[in-house]
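Students often ask why we bother predicting the structure of a whole assembly rather than each chain alone. The short answer is interfaces. A chain on its own may look different once its partners are present, and contacts between molecules only exist in the joint model. In this exercise we take two input lines together and write out one structure for the complete complex. Read the inputs first and try to guess which parts will touch.
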Amino acid sequence: MIIDCHGHYTTAPQSLWDWRKGQVADPKNFSKKLNISDQEIRDSLEGAQLKIQRERGTDLTFFSPRAGSMEHHVGDVKVSEAWSRECNDLIHRACTLHPANFAAVCQLPQSPGVPPANCIPELERCVNELGFIGCNLNPDPSGGWWKEPPLTDRWWYPLYEKLVELEVPAMVHVSSSCNPAFHFTGAHYINADTTAFMQFLTSDLFKDFPALKFVIPHGGGAVPYHWGRYRGLAQDMKRPPLKELLLNNVYFDTCVYHQPGIDLLLKVIPADNILFAAEVVGAVRGIDPETGRYYDDTRQYIENAPGLPDADKKKIFSGNVGKVYPRAARLLRRPGP
Amino acid sequence: MIIDCHGHYTTAPQSLWDWRKGQVADPKNFSKKLNISDQEIRDSLEGAQLKIQRERGTDLTFFSPRAGSMEHHVGDVKVSEAWSRECNDLIHRACTLHPANFAAVCQLPQSPGVPPANCIPELERCVNELGFIGCNLNPDPSGGWWKEPPLTDRWWYPLYEKLVELEVPAMVHVSSSCNPAFHFTGAHYINADTTAFMQFLTSDLFKDFPALKFVIPHGGGAVPYHWGRYRGLAQDMKRPPLKELLLNNVYFDTCVYHQPGIDLLLKVIPADNILFAAEVVGAVRGIDPETGRYYDDTRQYIENAPGLPDADKKKIFSGNVGKVYPRAARLLRRPGP
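Now the answer. The structure tokens for the assembled complex follow.
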């Protein structure tokens, strides 16, 4: 079984984006009901995520709203709450229509400067009422201006308490960038991954929350490439070794779009801490002329990784899911219809 | 011959930091003369950079002021100008005392929101009067708030015109971070490298300045690890292949502190675009328990890289310097005393 822990509903029907446009234009008087049929949802997935699952032989995708559209920086907290609810409801419908193909991951109604505890009701609704198994947590709801306290600050603790209670991990995922310095998928996403890891490295967060789980997407940003630097920085700071300090709580996905990158990831990060992912349909959509295959067909890189033991491959493709996403593991154990 | 293109005077005598403290405390009335003897300079280098050169068998270091202390965000442009001048003069003295060991690279008197053209007089002084061969350019003089236009904006063009005229490359190097989200050597440095590369990728800067040369330090941030992502993003944007788009102008150093990282760098980036560097005495000072050698002894990783042809090794250690740092190449051709 191959589980992709990182997929976004980038292909959602146009009505969703039109709804958002209306909401942003006049949030106070906006009351339009989002009107999308089941067939429209099916159509939006059929030629995209579902087709790709079939072509690449992957089974289940952890499916969340489009990351670039979370836009926590747009409007106030009420706007963020209403938008998150619509996006999450649509994810729920997609997952209900295709329960064998998708498990639901929610967007949180974060808003710059608003204590993250405000996300708890929507998180509980998604998890307890709708069966969601994970969430995306934005370390920078300002959209590229990085004004929030680090993820290790007590600012975030009430939300972490709830995550632990619900047995839900958070993928650290920023949204679009309003800062002209940062291209969103080429710089902001990758920088956020690197930034979050370094925040974790310098803190005792996981002493306070030994059961809290984070997935750092995009192969961990720059972290595996600079693994020696991070080991050395931790050592200079008299921190415990990274394995002991972080690797019970921090996991990396495999959204790295070429063989040498995946080979490095597999070499330096223990297989126990790697989760398969492709982020399709996502940031890179073309075919690599060097391989003749899609850049984001990350399964091929894992399959072709030299010397990767079968047991490790199994952990990466599905075996690690249980310890990071216990709710997904329970879904998978549920008898079929 | 082994040339290290990235060294900072992190071990400068305490008087320099005391001078800075005085300057920052009361910039208007501060008029103290910096008083450091030649012997103090020699002593500050002897047990550090010079010892390391001897131990590791490297020959020449391109030597610049401590990056974390450039602090372009502290005080106004006058403060930055006075501080840069002191730092650069000290670098000049260190290089004059040890002309076989160091070639000088200057700090620029940048200041947030101040057009970079203000740096031209200090750049000209350093290059034309003092024989400097390169400079460090900070893409974020705000110190972690990223308020400056991207490096590809016309904002920077007057400085680029001067760099081209003087045949001086710029290393893209941020200073310390005031933003609590970004640890300076663990996140801000690496993010800046990634950010700058993506800025270059999305622009036509090098059509306007075909002779402009940038060195991206710290192994290019996250870029080589995500080389497939960057190739794919460029392709989706209908940009030319990266080699054609950037690799006549953008170079990567080897400050990556473990063997798998260097192996990846050497695999994906052409040897023509890699410059040897260690950044000593720098961000990581310990000994790697996995190898028993210093993390930042990057020469070992190049020497041990499997299958690296001797010709490529020569390019990386010294051969590429001529095309990036023509003034250094001329220094090296100068007959000795």
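Check your guess against this: Chain B touches chain A through 57 residues (CB under 8 Å).
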